[in-house]
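The following record pairs a protein chain with its ligand, iron/sulfur cluster.
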Amino acid sequence: MFVQEKQETNVPALGLYAHVPFCSTTCDFCAFYQERPSKKAFEEFFLGLRREFERFPGDRSFSTVFIGGGTPGLLSSGQLEHLCRIIRDAGLSDGCEWTVEVAPSEISREKLDALAEGGVTRISLGVQTFSSDMMKSLGRDHKVEKVFSAYSMIREKAAFLVNLDLLFGAPGQTLDMWEFDLTTAAELEPDHLSTYCLTFEEDTAMYVRLSEGQVELDIEREAEFYEKAWTLLPQLGYPQYEVSNFSRPGRACLHNLNTWRMHEWIGYGPGASTQHKGVRRKNSANLEKWSAGMSDGKTPAYEECIEVVDRDLAGDAILFGLRMNEGVNLNDLAVRFNLSNSSLEPVRSFFGKLGAEGFMEEVAGFSVLTQDGRMRCDAIASEIPEIGDQES
Ligand code: SF4
């Protein structure tokens, strides 16, 4: 039986995501859109951002904020103050959870002061690993010691909860090395831990090494790494609440829960995604195009812009809900998304089959994957039947 987060019932109504696309170097495994920092690029970014907030204000106060990247910590303390001011001016709810991603090599007391004074409540530190060898093989530009000094610096500020990001499945990484990373992270006593499996995306240095046979991929091992984290972290005081996320009780990331439960959020910045008022869109992942498209009278540059209806949102809430330990309550979804009982029948019967196979159980009205089910959650997700047509 998995531990459920009982206290996260007040779902935030509207999230704000701001994408800061700058990185000084490219990590070997990274296929994310990034820009090299320069005076001109920073000016373009802030100009576009101000225009985007003017053109697309929230229709109510934002309940959560997440500033991601890229490397937001690459901005100077003055630029961070500026960014925080723009976000505060957008209108935030009382007690708004506000997270910023930072890399250990970019952090300073001055920047942390600017973030704390700006209203930030959580720092997500990109640790990746406590092994120097693995750090080198990932092409990260910081040393392991830097992680410890960055963590101490963040902990000097009572304003912040702290998340540590860890990566597993790198070439040469053993289960013992992974256990060392997990226990070392837990010994630091962060509030939250995220664990991500390394993926080999095309156009990355890691993919080139893979295709040249310099490193090997062992898919079988992935399951063992997942199992290690799922077993060990709860024992160390970090119950799991999603396939890749663990937290002290009451410290789950509300912004992510809001997203996975298919509520609304507005994304600002190049490459940022939005789901708001029946539209799902992704900004152009090109600083110049995005910024120019935000000028008065111009059409915003999107990579994708589609309408989404209740049935789509319910389908995605099921997909993401199965990744969470709280699972899926089909009756609640039917009410929230105006779905008839008969339209959910194919999903109910699929869940029944998963239950008979030992991959799903019922917990207080929620359909929850068992550990065996969660281990197969990608395969299960690909088999979830479409929600049927509504009765006329
Ligand atoms: S810091 Fe993050 S976004 Fe930048 S290159 Fe590394 S993994 Fe990619």
